[in-house]
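# nightly structure sweep
# worker-07 picked up a monomer target from the shared queue
# config: single-sequence mode, recycle default, output format = structure tokens
# input follows
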Amino acid sequence: MWRASGESGAPAHPHGFSLLDVLVATALFSVVMTGVFSVYVAMQGTFARGEMKSDLHQNARVGLDRLVQELRMAGYDPENALQQVAFQPFNEIRAAGRGCLSFVTYRKHGASEKSVQVTYSLSGTVLHRREDDWDPAITMFSSSSTQPLATAVGQLTFTYYDAFNRILTPSGTGRCPPGGALSGPLLDSTQAAQVRRVGVTLRTLESRPRVAPESYTLTSHVYLRNR
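# output follows
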């Protein structure tokens, strides 16, 4: 029987993938996906660290800026509370320790100004600000309110210097603020009268799963007014 020119005598069957082809393709795919996943993990870690740094910077600045601003006005006493207060261990510095500082300053109250006692302290990892209003009827600072000012705080340290830049080490004991719950080594009355400058160190610290811990430290020095 005659066949047309160009026709093959056997049917054509396309070749499939061999086991070796599949193994090689799988290996290459695994290498590529491992690289992609590594890049993704690295980018996620970089993003998380950047987010942590931003949060830590914000926390530290919010806490320290408020503290420094108020401390600069320590001793401004529009209601003359310090000349009347019944429980007066010191002057505008009411209590001063390494981790707690209480002082008298003021607060705007409508068109007038009020004398207040402000206390900064660290409880766990939260920076707290306590404010006590002056009550002339009982000649005491009372009606206190406490609010968290910054979180993820790992360190709050106050350092006190005299007129010769010598560090004053707390040698007395008491409560901060006076009559409050916190107790520990504080400056005595003689030391408190010698304070000219206060150094403040605030360190924020945070860690997250699979991300290296990040920290941020701010330090500021405040010269007390009228000293």
